[in-house]
Design brief:
Layout: H1 2-31, H2 36-58, E1 60-65, E2 74-77, H3 83-91, E3 94-99, H4 108-114, E4 118-120, H5 128-140, E5 144-147, H6 168-173, E6 178-182, H7 193-196, H8 205-214, E7 218-224, H9 234-248, H10 255-267, H11 271-278
Parallel strand pairs: 1-7, 2-5, 2-6, 3-4, 3-5
Antiparallel strand pairs: 6-7
Helix pairs in contact: 1-2, 2-3
Length: about 280
């Protein structure tokens, strides 16, 4: 009962926070259109207000180590959950490069559009030059850009290989790329974070979000690397960045447990979503 009331209360408080941030971003978009830099700054403030507000409402405690870069910057991070955007957004005035599916999410997609999120369909390789041009324009406007080069969110047992396509721009321009590593912890006695915080495989969004909001709190350690990396070869750049992120990453779950769940998925495609949606209560 307490957990259910917690979910309802958090949803109730999230509505005015989101509405305020969305109104702020839209107002900046229209009223400051003749002044692009001022518009970008205000949209960044609106986005940070939203991220910090939702983290407070959802009980996400961000623990920062290292110094966040100042804009303009290009930063890569490992990717564990939709919560990553909120966590990074509390510390960085930035624009995210996000998968195209997020654009269709209710409310979340609209707000992301209002703060200039760059949506990419990774299956449409012909669209890559346009995306890179938008990123270059964003950097030129004095904004930070954050990408998740793993391409998808993971269970949190490792940092997956970095795709290098979006690193072509900084490699070509000799632009130093910053990095961050994040992980999650939950209270003792709660479902493990790989079942209720990280979002991967066939996890249904609705049940996953409900389980996440039931948690009393989530701790999100966030490490910013001291040294950015520059390489003329994008694949070499991707390898160096992945190695740095992996060194600073604290695994959420053991590889063996992820392998067990994926084997379960192979034998019964419907079993894994049920386990993931139910957390550990039915195991």
């Amino acid at each position: 009962m307490i957990a259910t009331l917690r979910v309802l209360r958090r949803i109730l408080f999230a509505v005015p926070v989101t509405a305020t941030a969305y109104g702020w971003a839209l107002a900046a978009s229209f009223l400051l259109a003749p002044w692009p830099r001022a518009k970008v700054r205000q949209q960044g403030h609106a986005f940070r207000f939203w991220c910090r507000g939702l983290c407070r409402v959802f009980g996400v405690r961000v623990r920062v180590s290292g110094r966040p870069p100042s804009p303009p910057f290009f930063l890569v991070s490992n990717h564990l959950s939709y919560v990553d955007i909120l966590v990074l957004g509390t510390e960085l005035p930035c624009v995210f490069v996000a998968k195209a599916e997020i654009d269709d999410w209710p409310i979340f997609g609209a707000l992301c559009r209002s703060v200039n999120t760059i949506f990419i369909d990774r299956r449409a390789k012909r669209d890559l030059p346009r995306i890179l041009a938008v990123i270059e324009t964003t950097l030129s406007a004095g904004q930070g850009v954050v990408i998740f080069p793993e391409g998808t969110s993971s269970a949190g047992c490792e940092v997956m290989a970095f795709r290098s396509s979006l690193l072509d721009l900084p490699a070509r321009l000799g632009y130093a790329v910053h990095w961050a590593a994040l992980t999650y912890r939950v209270p003792p006695g709660s479902p493990p974070p790989h079942l209720c915080v990280t979002w991967w495989a066939d996890m249904p969004l609705g049940p996953h979000l409900r389980e996440l909001l039931r948690l009393p709190w989530i701790e999100a350690p966030l490490l910013f690397g001291e040294t950015p990396y520059a390489e003329a070869d994008r694949k070499r750049l991707a390898e160096r960045l992945r190695a740095a992120v992996e060194e600073g990453f604290e695994p959420v779950v053991a590889r063996e447990e992820v392998d067990r769940l994926m084997a379960l998925r192979e034998t019964d495609p419907d079993a894994l979503p049920a386990v993931l949606a139910a957390g550990v209560k039915n195991r």
